[in-house]
Amino acid sequence: MALAAVPSKAAPAVPAAPRAGPPGSPAPAPRRRWLQPLALAACAAPLLKLAADGATGGLGANPIEAGLSRLGFWTLTLLCLTLAATPLHQLAGLAWPLRLRRLLGLATFAYATLHFLWYLGVDQGLELGLVATDVVKRPFITVGFAALLLLAPLALTSTDGWVRRLGFRAWKRLHRLTYAAALLGVVHFAWRVKADRLVPSVFAAVLAALLLARLATWARRQRP
Amino acid sequence: MAGSFRPDVKESEATPEGLWLRRREFLTLGAAGALGLAVGARARAAAGPTGQPLPVARRVDSAGGEAPTPWEDVTSYNNFYELGTDKADPARLAGSLRPRPWTVTVDGEVKRPLTLDVDALWRLFPLEERLYRHRCVEAWSMVVPWVGFPLGDLLRRVEPTSRARFAVFTTLLDPAQLPGQRRAVLDWPYQEGLRLDEALHPLTLLAVGLYGRVLPGQNGAPLRLVVPWKYGFKGAKSIVRITLTERQPTTTWVRMAPREYGFYANVNPEVDHPRWSQARERRIGEFLRRKTLPFNGYAAEVAGLYAGLDLRRSF
Fold first, then answer.
1. pLDDT tens-place string over residues B233-248
2. What's residue A1's pLDDT?
3. CB 3.0 to 4.6 Å from B292: which of A195, A222, B29, B269, for a disulfide?
4. Chain A residues within an 8 Å CB radius of B18
């Protein structure tokens, strides 16, 4: 995967992933080629389950609401998993999460898009005027929609070509929008529930931990 | 983070192109899922009503000839936070609720207060089946054949005093039977209230059954309130006490979020919930939303109760 954050000064307390030795040395252990296909399959699983439940009546009396909630839940879950890759690398010294970060990010965007399309087409029956009113008038929908808009340029510029075109620094700055999208996504969920804030609170706690982990890494780097 | 970037990524580490192109499949799956819904709505097992049959003296259709929502849906999709906040929780956890034996107390501003076993209570009145539209504040709705008796019949029996202005309904407080009460999601016990004239209105029902059978736990066994022109949350479930008072009670949802839930809670397509429109609703079992009717379609019977009241302010 692209773009492991390589610290400039203090070397990280993590061993680098095994690399190919000098020419002539024995070939390195092959990379786990199954890692990404497996991750993609895992990302697709909730969608397959949604389709299966939809076909068998497993979505209950209000399948439209159930589908909307599930797609939203998986969007936030995948976003948290995406944001877990970097701290896992920096704090636990694991290399493989970085190879999944782009895939997880794109899966997040795919679920966010499906969540929105479900709301627009299935839940609201393509009543564009009503949806536009909702986006403007209902704060929880405003922040949810804003989160989707923030994710769009990140999905668009997720390729290596875009990293080259923008230059790494600018690209990295742009992709920090992920943090804003995650915050807005959790707020969107918290503002939607009527009384029981348990699940949104769990997402908020996970997100806080993921951001604090980054802060810890950053603080460590400030010490010369 | 100021880091120098070493492009140490080999081509082999990037996502293989074949995998990449499968994104489209990923997206078409979503469409397949949506299609599956239409099929799935049909495939749901149509389980028939279960439970003890009740003696029904007369049947009244107050839903304009609409088909009742299937028993399976009415008993599996519930808001009853005392049994969990997910729609499927109440049906799953209803086993912990023991609706018999059950004692109901009617007291407060009444000349003849009474405390009675619930089965003795409903036997005082001829039971009726009433087909009512049921509109939830969350913008979904059903058509439900309740079995019960008019609340007014009971209230007249206990003889309200001249000071009685409101009726307050209290749900059982017992975390052993109602595990949802182990978490302070709401301020337990659940309390609802009506103005006395609303409580005496012939449409206002105390329900003990559904589809001719005794009420299941998830629907508020053994005794619940049904006020068909108001949002569903007004219909307190698993009632242990009805108290007539002089002062307007602060009901549970009003205490929880006074900007979002009003004491009146009359179904009104003109007055939105702050977080969603109330102009349309999804009838369970239907795909497209339908227009919400003023007073849930009971305006002819109840609009007179609110003459001179600003329904925007008294929502």
1. 999 999 999 999 999 9
2. 42
3. B269
4. none
